[in-house]
TrEMBL record:
Gene3D superfamilies for the chain: Anti-sigma factor, zinc-finger domain (1.10.10.1320)
Highest rank taxon of the organism: Bacteria
Start and end residues of each Putative zinc-finger domain: 3-37
Family, per entry: Belongs to the zinc-associated anti-sigma factor (ZAS) superfamily. Anti-sigma-W factor family.
Protein name: Anti-sigma-W factor RsiW
């Protein structure tokens, strides 16, 4: 069996539309062809992801769900739409990721702006109201991230300093060995999350 034929049969197999004889031929081909076996696993994972999303309780508003459902092609085009998704698992995964990020941005915009401080050496910082202070003479070993607040650095940070929806003040005595990032807009916030996710995956 040629790989092209095997790939076209995979979609019908996952939809339970493949006759028994062709199912057996496809299984035999998958046992002998590593590339097709990998492709089949990707399609199977996409299928399971789509099933999970369709049967999971929606976290978006009813209005958003209605708009998304109305934008999906109607019944006669539905099979072609599902087939396209199965043939492009990487694009589908990327699209789903962007949807999740956009939904989390909407949630972020609607939530209370609470101060969030993340880092590995937080006992060296002083928090006064919505202001996070790295005092003169103190050394932070590692990255420091502050969301929804003011950051004042008088001491030393041996890592990156990231301020999200806030302000940063660096005194003349301050020393930051890593990058200084200030993120104020939703698009920049999404890009920060995406690049951080890929960096974490790359270093695993």
């Amino acid at each position: 069996m040629e790989c092209k034929l095997a790939v076209s049969m995979m979609h019908d197999y996952l939809d339970d539309d493949l006759p028994g004889q062709q199912q057996r031929e496809l299984k035999e081909h998958l046992l002998s062809c590593t590339d097709c076996r990998v492709k089949f696993k990707e399609l199977e994972q996409t299928d399971m992801l789509m099933f999970s999303l369709m049967h999971h309780n929606p976290v978006a508003s009813e209005d958003l769900v209605d708009r998304i459902m109305n934008s999906i092609p109607k019944s006669k085009k539905e099979r072609g739409f599902v087939t396209w998704i199965k043939r492009h698992p990487a694009l589908t995964a990327a699209s789903l990721f962007l949807v999740v990020m956009l939904m989390s941005t909407v949630t972020l915009g609607n939530s209370d702006r609470q101060l969030v401080v993340r880092g590995s050496d937080l006992d060296q910082v002083v928090i006064k109201g919505d202001t996070v202070i790295v005092p003169s003479g103190k050394v932070i070993s590692g990255d420091l991230t502050v969301e929804n607040g003011k950051t004042q650095v008088f001491g030393e940070v041996n890592g990156n300093v990231t301020v999200i929806d806030g302000s940063l003040y660096q005194a003349s005595t301050a020393h930051i060995s890593g990058q200084v990032k200030s993120i104020d807009q939703a698009v920049s916030w999404i890009w920060y999350k995406v690049t951080n996710m890929f960096s974490e995956v790359a270093y695993r």
